[in-house]
Task: inverse folding
């Protein structure tokens, strides 16, 4: 099974190695260990739901998460997504002042609109309410810097995508998995805001997955700030889809 920094190509591998989360942090380990979802791996990656650690009841966000429990898992997810969407919309922070990483409680307390941090928070809140969840990495391999993070949750007997940054739950009669969305962009457009139609479906060009056990005692959660690579990258026009810092020449 293909895994690691370079599964979406060399240029994205350079970008991931320069991620603004700390080396060795749980967020960096996600990038080191993410597994590519493709024809050869789809059966294995969808064979079983993620396992929730029995110790999740001792997670520091477990009591907080219980307020979102609804009449069924779908309603619970909608409640969680509404919460994180509002968090992201209300997060107005200068890039130089932003913090990245940290524990899920630290992310919750400071607020964030950074997709990787809010996805990790969302995955843990799901586990705290008994819904298995794993981290979802998305990349449009035909364009530079076009990546995103979301979550795959397991409910109603199958996987479905939940985007905790935008508050979208992908569902049509049953949950819609990342693999299904990759092969059916119309299903994506039925859920998302029209202002995202141009770029969001194409993010499902490249998909990778990570299981996450927030109760693993080996997890590391340092807090970081923007690094020089991201400072340079975000000061440039990256909408043209070209690599601006020579990533494709390394």
Result:
């Amino acid at each position: 099974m293909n895994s690691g920094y370079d599964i979406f190509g060399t240029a994205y591998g350079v970008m991931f190695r320069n991620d603004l989360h700390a080396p060795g942090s749980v967020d960096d380990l996600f990038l080191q260990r993410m597994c590519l979802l493709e024809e050869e791996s789809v059966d294995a990656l969808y064979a079983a739901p993620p396992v929730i650690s029995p110790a999740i009841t001792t997670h520091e966000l477990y009591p907080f998460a219980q307020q979102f429990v609804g009449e069924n898992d779908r309603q619970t997810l909608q409640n969680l997504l509404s919460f994180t969407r509002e968090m992201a919309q209300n997060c107005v922070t200068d890039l130089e002042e932003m913090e990245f990483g940290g524990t899920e409680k630290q992310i919750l307390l400071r607020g964030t609109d950074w997709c990787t941090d809010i996805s990790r928070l969302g995955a843990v809140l799901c586990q705290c309410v008994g819904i298995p969840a794993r981290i979802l990495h998305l990349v449009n391999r035909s364009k530079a810097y076009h990546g995103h993070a979301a979550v795959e949750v397991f409910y109603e007997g199958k996987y479905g995508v939940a985007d905790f940054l935008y508050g979208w739950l992908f569902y049509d009669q049953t949950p819609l998995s990342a693999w299904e969305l990759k092969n059916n962009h119309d299903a994506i457009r039925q859920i998302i805001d029209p202002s995202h139609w141009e770029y969001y479906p194409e993010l499902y060009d490249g998909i990778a997955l990570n299981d996450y056990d927030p109760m693993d005692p080996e997890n590391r959660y340092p807090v970081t700030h923007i690094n020089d690579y991201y400072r340079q990258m975000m000061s440039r026009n990256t909408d043209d889809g070209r690599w601006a810092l020579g990533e494709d020449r390394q």
In short: The chain is about 30% helix and 15% strand.
